[in-house]
Design goal:
The chain contains 16 helices and no strands. By secondary structure, it is an all-alpha fold. The longest helix is centred in the last third of the chain and has 28 residues.
């Protein structure tokens, strides 16, 4: 599978996450974000583990716990806390700063060079998102800002460590995704019980919403996200993140009748353009690809002939 196809499939994850606000506001019980986070992660994780029929072994018990906490267990509650304490636009902008954390951590832990074009793409994408979601009435709250920044750092660290550790030899991506979602869901459950109390009563709409969140928005989305991390650079994957708030804005316009101003449209174009720019290979990557390019049939024949002649001389 070529790089473009892999990138497009990976982009489906943040696009799916962009539907979270619509589903939560239209189908799910109000003011239960932590319960929703647990319902997203734990059932999906248990389902994937059951399908793969593989449990962690050795160090992968604690590695799965760490990755599940960073990518889900800590990320979800901190994200929801930020959303509650801040206007949605401010929370979205803090979330769009995540690629900058990944650029720094990838350089430190993975040896991925922090190129100027990557940093520029991340900054421009965050600025474009701010044009889409920020309003003049937006106010800052210290606790909300800290929660938003830490949630972005948590997801960024999870992305980098997922790339660094990969997965055990012979174990499917389905199993590793299930381990992380299960671990993340188990972290959220006691927090949800402490903060929100007993689970709410669920009606038909809620079951439909949670079914979508579990299967598509979380299970399939995280599978594609982790798959992308395994096949692309960590920075390339995280630069797809701004597609989430852009998708939320488009759904708000199409399904909820929310108006889009010229400034918001310009911001969407800017953020989307920066996201695409961030996926284009730089000169160094093109040079590496050219160096690794297989021989053509003629070149392969010449190479084999040269080797045969060398052996004959010996």
């Amino acid at each position: 599978m070529n790089r473009v196809t892999t990138t497009v499939l990976t982009a489906l994850a943040p696009i799916s996450w962009g539907s979270t606000y619509f589903v939560a506001s239209e189908l799910l019980p109000a003011d239960r974000p932590l319960f929703t986070g647990a319902m997203r992660a734990l059932p999906a994780g248990l389902l994937l583990v059951a399908l793969s029929r593989v449990l962690p072994k050795g160090a992968w018990w604690w590695k799965s716990a760490v990755l599940g906490t960073l990518n889900i267990g800590a990320f979800f509650p901190l994200l929801f806390l930020s959303a509650y304490r801040l206007p949605g636009g401010v929370a979205a902008v803090l979330g769009s700063a995540g690629p900058l954390f990944v650029v720094g951590l990838a350089a430190l832990l993975l040896g991925e060079r922090a190129r100027l074009r990557t940093v520029l793409a991340a900054v421009v994408a965050a600025f474009g998102v701010s044009m889409v979601v920020l309003t003049a009435e937006a106010k800052l709250d210290l606790v909300g800002v800290i929660a938003g920044v830490v949630s972005s750092a948590s997801m960024g660290a999870g992305t980098v460590m997922t790339k660094r550790w990969g997965r055990p030899e012979g174990v499917s991506l389905l199993a590793v995704t299930g381990w992380q979602l299960t671990a993340g869901g188990l972290v959220i459950i006691p927090i949800a019980a402490l903060v929100e109390g007993a689970p709410p009563a669920l009606d038909g709409k809620a079951f439909l919403g949670y079914g979508y969140m579990m299967l598509i928005n979380t299970g399939a989305a995280y599978f594609l996200w982790f798959r992308g991390i395994g096949q692309l650079t960590a920075t390339s994957v995280t630069l797809l993140g701004p597609l989430s708030p852009l998708t939320a804005a488009v759904i708000g316009w199409a399904a909820l009748g929310q108006a889009l101003t010229p400034v918001q449209l310009a911001g969407m174009a800017l953020a989307f353009g920066a996201t695409v720019f961030g996926q284009l290979p730089g000169r160094a990557a093109k040079a590496e690809a050219a160096a690794a390019k297989p021989f053509s049939k003629t070149e392969e024949t010449d190479q084999n002939l040269s080797m045969d002649l060398g052996k004959a001389k010996v």
